[in-house]
Amino acid sequence: MSMPRPRSIARELRISLGLTLLAFWLLAAGLAFSVMQEEMGEVFDSALQETAERLAPLVIDDLYTREDTSAPRKLTALRENVPDEYLTYQVRDGSGRVLLHSHNVSADPYEAPLVEGFWSGDEKRIFTVAAVSGSIFVQVADSLDHRREASIEGVTALLMPLLLLLPASLIAVSWFVRRNVSEVDRLKRVIGLRDSGNLAPIDLKDLPIELEPIQQSVNLLIKRVDDALEAERSLTANSAHELRTPIAGALAQSQLLLSELQDGQTRDRARQVDAALRKLSVLTEKLLQLARADAGIGKSAVTSDLSTILDIVMEEFLRNRQSGSVLHYHRPEKMVLSREVDPDAFAIAARNLVENALAYRLPDTHVDVHLKPDGLRVSNLTSTKTLLAPEKLRQRFVRGHSLHPGSGLGLAIVERLATQMGAQLELTATPLAPDQSRFDASIVFRDP
């Protein structure tokens, strides 16, 4: 089932104005044609009547000078092969018999009655003049086809300019609509650039007065959202900072307590407390990173060598006894990755990708970290059962099935920072065996 086409104000304006303009043009042409047809009819009738009245005395004189009136007399044409002879005439007596007729009509009497005035049939319009006390009738006929032809030629002459003017009018309407709607498009584009990473007020100059309230309302909404996000970030950062010290102290006390207790139920409970404190410490650290990511630290005006930043991060992991033995760092010699990115933001993103791979790798497998010309890729083998859809893994507080402690914020933080750094987080899972897949998490920078 196809999706409905989205509405467009500009398109609807062009269509409605174009159809309205076309309707008015056709209405004007119809009215003009109606008036023209009526006036042309009056002109034709006037010419028909005047011809009959001027012809009547002439044919009467001709009849009285002629001796034989028993058979209809046909007048010969003065010129042969004259085109477009539309008027014909007959002279009839009181009984209807044809006494005289023009060369371009037969001797069969017209269908018109012998009554003075106009009469219309299917093919002719006839004007009748009575003479000699109503004993002689002169009938002059005009072809209705001629009148229709004249009307068609008239309306054609009227519509021909319309065929040229109407497209020009539609083009002008479209141009004016596009020109005026361009201000709406400009405001739409600027509003579309606003998100939680860009909450700068909109300051468009020379906006039409109809759009000024929209700009003011959007700016007011942006300020409210910015205030709410800032309050949320401040609460998260302050809470995490305040929790760091007591958690670290509690962890130290739990370690001291474990060293003093003998094996038994009390020591097991102490281990549970220690594990809970470590999980809380990890969550606190991730919340701090999330607060910094929400603050928009990813972009920088200064170009940084990110390959050096990655070297420092990897050195920290490689020195650790647990992670160093399973990490394989692939760094081509003399490769430099330079971007206008905040070093701390890139370090946080890289550290989260490596930590995620270490947490979800299969036992006795390693983690590969590749420095690429366009970014960073971290790969690990994992169980297919622990994998979730990439769309879900990008969400906050969502994590795969693993016994390793985690907060479900690592990939969400990387997603947020990658967007700010002008990069993209790509997550792919490639099945290798019935219960084994290779999981790749990559930060791919767009062209600098």
Automatic annotation (TrEMBL):
It is a multi-pass membrane protein. InterPro entries: 2CSK_N (IPR013727), HATPase_C_sf (IPR036890), HATPase_dom (IPR003594), His_kinase_dom (IPR005467), HisK_dim/P_dom (IPR003661), HisK_dim/P_sf (IPR036097), TCS_sensor_his_kinase (IPR050428). Its EC number is 2.7.13.3. Keywords: ATP-binding, Kinase, Membrane, Nucleotide-binding, Phosphoprotein, Transferase, Transmembrane, Transmembrane helix, Two-component regulatory system. GO terms for molecular function: kinase activity. It is found in: Membrane. The chain crosses the membrane at residues 156-177. It comes from the Bacteria. It is an enzyme of class 2 (transferase). Signal peptide: none annotated. SMART domains: HATPase_c (SM00387), HisKA (SM00388). Residues 238-448 form the Histidine kinase domain. Gene3D superfamilies: 1.10.287.130, Histidine kinase-like ATPase, C-terminal domain. Pfam families: 2CSK_N, HATPase_c, HisKA. It catalyses: ATP + protein L-histidine = ADP + protein N-phospho-L-histidine. CDD domains: HisKA (cd00082). This is histidine kinase.
